[in-house]
Amino acid sequence: MKLPNLFTYNYKDELNMNMQISQLLSIRTIELFAGVGGFRLGLEKASLKNKFYRVVWSNQWEPSTKTQHASDIYCARFGYGNHSNEDISTVDVADIPEHDLLVGGFPCQDYSVASTLKNSHGIIGKKGVLWWEIYRILEQKKEKAPKYLMLENVDRLLKSPASQRGRDFAIILSSLNSLGYGVEWRVINASDYGMPQRRRRIFIMAYKKGTKLHLNLKEKMPQEILNKEGIFAKTFPIKTVYKEDIVSLELADDLVDITNNFNKNSPKKNSFYETGYMIDGVCYTATCKAEHQGDFSALGDFLQDEKDVPKEFYITEEELEKWKYHKGSKSIERVNKTTGHKYLYSEGSMGFPDCLKKPSRTIITGEGGASASRFKHVVCVDGRYRRLTPVELERLNMFPDNHTIGVSDSKRAFLMGNALVVGVVERLGNKLLEELE
Prior knowledge:
The chain is of the alpha+beta class. It folds into two domains: 297 residues, Vaccinia Virus protein VP39 (Rossmann fold, 3-Layer(aba) Sandwich), CATH 3.40.50; 98 residues, no CATH class. The chain is 28% helix and 21% strand. It is built from 13 helices and 17 strands. Strands 1, 2, 3, 4, 5, 8, 9, 10, 11, 12 and 13 form an eleven-stranded mixed sheet that branches. A two-stranded antiparallel sheet has the order 6-7. The longest helix is centred in the last third of the chain and has 14 residues.
């Protein structure tokens, strides 16, 4: 199916744009694991006086499918220029343009290191683990590596793997430290700051040695960074973190040592909490609670007019009983296939239908399709029960209406389950522009 192309080329428009760019400071940006462009949308919404973000290269590759739905949508919305639809591990770093900012939502995987390369600072991580592709770009760019990183992941990254809580995040922090970066992180629930979806994700900002932001982490005290002076503290305020509640730890330089030994003595104890930063291999971290003075969003405010909802999204009386069963509490006897041991599987009830006066629950990749499910959203409007439409899912991630049009409704739902809340990136992007020297 040919996707609607929202990108049109006009020579005069490009000429005028280039003239305007010459008078502005553009932050050259590359977007990795781009999906359908959530980072790009957020950054392009961000602007400050004479500063703005300009995506100079992007990459999106889905190894498990023949049709590259996300990449096709990305190109239909932003154009085909400087976009790579190939396995990032096969891309020559020399072919990636110089850039100031690298952004991406990299997959949560096993980041363990197999071995270090003898007589060099290189490392060998597991094949196909995409964190090491970010590392490869930074390492091979050397002095031309980007000054700033903005990354996103699921919040369980702070606690993985279960057998060595925090090991994977320690590997990421230590590897960035070896490349000369200071790092801030924060677990952000978008709904805590007035956005329409309860989506918890960890956002990571990194600053190269020699930048003002790196020096800020080096010179300020931990309590200052976490409460007032860090990028996250300025963008997403929190209730006061007290000095006695801040935990510090020093990371090993040897990534193999971290892989084998990190948190081995107390594997179930958390080493990293919702907010923190790392400078020169030393981490400072604490639990935190959001402090938001503005309005909060409600699911009901993001629904389409009922006359625009296709009939296939409504749930029949017969099907409604199946939905109620999945959403309700239950205890089911199950048998372990390996041991033959019988056990009772229990789960509590969920709110049904979804409350229209609160932010929505997290959108999942399995949101699409008409079959009854425990985790899909169901709303009741004017006495009629229905699933959420693709446009509504886009709105809950703060994407433009019909951003993903051109593929099936189920695929559109899947893509939104994989996306991020654009508003978080927009706010971080604005704050970064303010802080740039």
